Amino acid sequence: MARARRADTAPELALRRILHAHRLRYRVGYPVPGAPRRSIDIAFTRARLAIFIDGCYWHGCPQHSTAPKNNAGWWQDKFAANAARDADTNRLLVEKGWTVMRVWEHENPDTVASRVLAALHG
């Protein structure tokens, strides 16, 4: 698990390529205001739009999430803590006037890009 990428994952890069092709400029790994150890995967700072690409395994995707059988209690607590941290991050950003968009890693990047464009352009 230590080898799992935290940033620049294939779904994140695919979405970034599409957004860049639309001549959009964004920040990568932008710090969450008020939470020093958290960062936004893709941030449009002027529009205050935060995009998180959540991994199915770590964030409990309803379609693809699996639970490890070894040390099941520890993993259940870990996944619950991840969900609580995600909710807290969303709350912090919304309180600061940001719009939060969370997408699953398995979602089609073109579809996600369309949603991002719609959010940016009203």
TrEMBL record:
GO terms for molecular function: endonuclease activity; hydrolase activity. This is Very short patch repair endonuclease. It comes from the Bacteria. Keywords: DNA damage, DNA repair, Endonuclease, Hydrolase, Nuclease. GO terms for biological process: mismatch repair. It comes from Dermacoccus nishinomiyaensis. SUPFAM superfamilies: Restriction endonuclease-like. Gene3D superfamilies: VSR Endonuclease. Belongs to the Vsr family.
